[in-house]
Design a protein that fits this description.
single chain; mainly alpha
Length: about 120
């Protein structure tokens, strides 16, 4: 083999290895996206997302089901897209749930403060 032939052969082999590695990783990002989305949905559910943000939770679960179907169909790009959308919906549900719970706690605290002020006013009269 000539030096040019060896050089081209090395380039072709390197390109083949890079392409093969790239194609084998097509499943990995979608798998990671689905796993992250599943965790986000579980976190939102643990934060009482169904109670305080049922629309968002249902949307997240529906999109997660679509992501799982796309994974089963080996459409990894679509699976990643659905998984990312499910994650956003789950995080929104978790945020709404946390906000609602914080508001409830704040309202209770404000009521306690009001009662204490009334008691102080009565005691000072």
């Amino acid at each position: 083999m000539t030096r040019n032939t060896q050089k081209w052969l090395a380039i072709v082999c390197s390109a083949t290895v890079v392409l093969a590695a790239g194609c084998s990783n097509l499943k990995s990002p979608a798998t990671a996206d689905v796993a992250v989305s599943k965790a986000a949905i579980e976190n939102a559910a643990a934060a009482d997302g169904m109670e305080f943000a049922p629309v968002e939770m249902n949307s997240a679960r529906e999109k997660m089901a679509k992501a799982n179907k796309a994974m089963a169909d080996k459409d990894y790009k679509l699976a990643g897209n659905w998984a990312n959308q499910a994650e956003v919906d789950a995080k929104l549900a978790q945020g709404k749930a946390n906000t609602a719970k914080a508001k409830i706690a704040s309202d209770a605290l404000q009521e306690d403060i009001r009662v204490l002020r009334e008691e102080l006013d009565r005691a000072n009269k």
